[in-house]
Amino acid sequence: MDSKRDKEQDADCDKVTAALLKSRTGEFDLESILFLKLRGLGAHDIGCIGECINLERLDLSGNNITNLAPLASLRHLSVLNLSANRISNLEPLRSCESVQSLNVAGNLLSSIESLHCLQSLRKLENIRFKDNTYNYTNPVCRNASYRTIILEMFPNIKVLDGERVVGRGSELYQLCKDIDDTIKAGLYKNGQLVEHPDCKPWVEDSYWEIKRSNNAIIEEAYKQFNDVLHECRLLNNRATHVISQTERSMSLKKQPKQYAI
């Protein structure tokens, strides 16, 4: 019942409060929180998150956030997900000097100028302004030279919008993109989809079937994983029991002694 009530409260959250943060993390002190996931709460006021000064990973995706001012104090933040909100100003992130991965897809960023504040983030390697998987984007992505401009603005980034642009794997991404563009260009003629009735598959029908040997390996790995998971549950139960006994013992010691007169 309690967990159900908590979920209902979270789902109807309008402002992020200290009580909410403590209940979601189990921490008594906001400065002790390192990881925080507040996805899809419908919140528009991120309140006291700025007091979590040691926060390293933060997920605020799927809310109604417009003001990022409370995040300016998060100097240790390395991973930040702000996708699917209503953000049009990223200026408060200028001081988040440790950010390495930033997701702001699905917001209201309308101009290249609004992104200049991110150039001070020297450790930024992974940045996302659009996400085709969830159909998230920003108005700025409609700019015909968007990709070229972003790569010039952030010469140190390795991944842009989920595609590796430098380093190992970047050539494969570019090759796939070129092939995809070529295929799309060949599918249409004068705006009409061209049909190719004589097309044949590149591989045999059984090519994609998983061999039995692979199935056996997967089944064995799945079995081992379940065994480890079972042991973890047993250890958790034992730990809970020991903690309960310790708390009971300590509560008995703290009780005042009573003397009969």
Automatic annotation (TrEMBL):
Segment forming the signal sequence: none
Alphabetized UniProt keyword annotations: Leucine-rich repeat, Repeat
Q: Does the keyword Repeat apply?
A: yes
Q: Name one Pfam family in it.
A: LRR_9
Asked if the record carries the keyword Repeat, the reply is: yes
* InterPro entries from the UniProt entry: Leu-rich_rpt, LRR_dom_sf
The record ties this protein, via PANTHER family, to: LEUCINE RICH REPEAT PROTEIN, LEUCINE-RICH REPEAT-CONTAINING PROTEIN 61
The protein in question is named: Leucine rich repeat containing 61
Species source reads Dicentrarchus labrax (European seabass)
